[in-house]
C-alpha cells in the first residue's frame, strides 16, 4: 500500500509539471566576469539594458577614443591655419612699415602658423566631443570606468618622495597603460621605484 501511495504522488507531480508552460519556467542564469547586459528598472517601471564594461573592453575603447582625438588634430590644424591665413590676408600691408621691428609679412605668416598650432592643440578636445556624440552610452560607461581606473592608479602608484635623478617616478598618471599586461608592468615598476627609494633613504641614514 505504501508503494501504491508513492507511485500516486509521483504521477500527480509529473502531471503538474507537464501542465506548466515553458514560458513560465525560470531560466538558470550564469554570471560571467566578462561584459554583460544588466536589466535595471527605472522610475516608470520599464526595464533598460546597462552595458557593464570589463577591463579589456575599457582599454580597447580608450584606445579608440584616443584615435578619434588624434585624427581630429589634423583637420583642426588645417582649419586653424586656413582661417588665420584668410584673416591676415585681408589686412592692409605696408612693406615700408614694421611692427615691433618685424616685417608685416613675416608677422602675419607666423600668426597664421600659430593659428594652425592652436587648432592642433584643440583637436583632441574636438575629437573627444565627436566620440561622445557618436556613442553616447558607451562614452558614459567609459567615463565611469575611467574614474575607477584612476582610483586604482592613485592607490597603487609610488610615493613621489622616493624620486631622484637616478630613480624617476614612472608614469605618475598611468597614461601609458593600455592593457591589463601593461597595468601589471606598471605595478612592478611602481614597486621597484619604492624599493630603490627606500634603499636610498636607508643608506643615507
From TrEMBL:
The UniProt record lists the keyword Metal-binding: no
Cell compartments where the protein resides: Mitochondrion inner membrane
A biological-process GO annotation: protein import into mitochondrial matrix
Keywords, in A-Z order: Membrane, Mitochondrion, Mitochondrion inner membrane, Protein transport, Transit peptide, Translocation, Transmembrane, Transmembrane helix, Transport
GO cellular component, one term: PAM complex, Tim23 associated import motor
Membrane topology, record value: Multi-pass membrane protein
The protein's assembly and partners: Component of the PAM complex.
Name the record gives this protein: Presequence translocated-associated motor subunit PAM17
Organism for this UniProt entry: Coemansia guatemalensis
